[in-house]
């Protein structure tokens, strides 16, 4: 029943009929509620997730519980951070959680590991998907390292507004702080400053972009 | 003449004799002096480097020239950040420079791109090598985000001492600052503090570890 989604995977045509049948048979639909943990380091291996709807947040966390979001995945994208155990000599010490209610097709670890051993196209797919996220994480890292807090807040709000097509970005100040790797108090001060300048309006559970061009000029 | 080195590449046995001959024929030895730029973003594609001796430093740089080292590669390792142009839909906005005098075997971009198109094992190798660096960069990122400056300095010194087998880490304060993504003045203050506590001795162009166990206890 998932064959249509599966057939869009770049390695699908390189699988034998038996491998295709095993994949169609063993993959399954999974659902996560907003805020639910999908994967933690040292927790074993889930598998590869093909996201159908919702969003996953990938983050690093410190022993004291500080968080820094390093990547986000949306519908149509593939999550391989939940499949690091299949990569020889590689470990990703990251947390994955559902940022909103999320549905995905799961290619379970055992299935995927088997396919990967039998088929070099599956291996190339996995590492390529990881490499694509690498490039995305580097961009986010550059922002965390070199942009001012004001620029990071503006950049996050503009990205989210562009992605959702709405000027009202649904995010709490705590979530925003985690997303850009900063502290809630600092983010709160920055939002107040931007509000005084007429660039945003802070609402309950959301930040509304009041002057998009001015926000762009900050970057 | 480079066949012995090349034959250790995991895809080598999957190449046809003609592909092996082309690789042996077109690869060449390159040398970089300490401090020399190896690759800059937007500069085109060099190819894959198999490092024979020396060290490469991978760093991000801000428009104002601030730098943050995100990875280091040593003898026996493979640099693929100089081959991002071969990865579809992936770009790495990073700088690569020789940290010490470095010799490497270069599989030039044109050769490698050709092999990769013809041979899925070569593609899998490239993305796997990138994924391995991803894991390493994430570890460094975690340190930059969550460790105190003192911890980052201690961690860098201990790593370098372990790697070189010497208690005298040859590094200027400017280099140390770049390596851990901080400012020279802040690093200078931190080193003075560690020196007062008897943990290190600051020498010209080097930092000597005076009390390794105490440095470990900082982490």
Structure report:
The structure is a homodimer of 219-residue chains. The first copy, chain A, is α+β, with helices and mostly antiparallel strands. Chain A folds into two domains: 3-136, Jelly Rolls (Sandwich), CATH 2.60.120.10; 147-218, Arc Repressor Mutant, subunit A (Orthogonal Bundle), CATH 1.10.10.10. Helices cover 43% and strands 24% of the residues of chain A. In chain A, a hairpin with a 2-residue loop joins strand 10 and strand 11 (206-209). In chain A, helix 3 packs across helix 4, helix 5 packs across helix 8 (212-218) and helix 6 (173-180) packs across helix 7. Chain A is elongated, with a radius of gyration of 19 Å. The relative contact order of chain A is 0.14. The A-B interface holds A 60, 62-63, 66, 68, 70, 84, 87, 89-94, 120-121, 123-124, 127-128, 130-135, 137-139, 141-142, 144-146, 181 and B 60, 62-63, 66, 68, 70, 84, 87, 89-94, 120-121, 123-124, 127-128, 130-135, 137-139, 141-142, 144-146, 181.
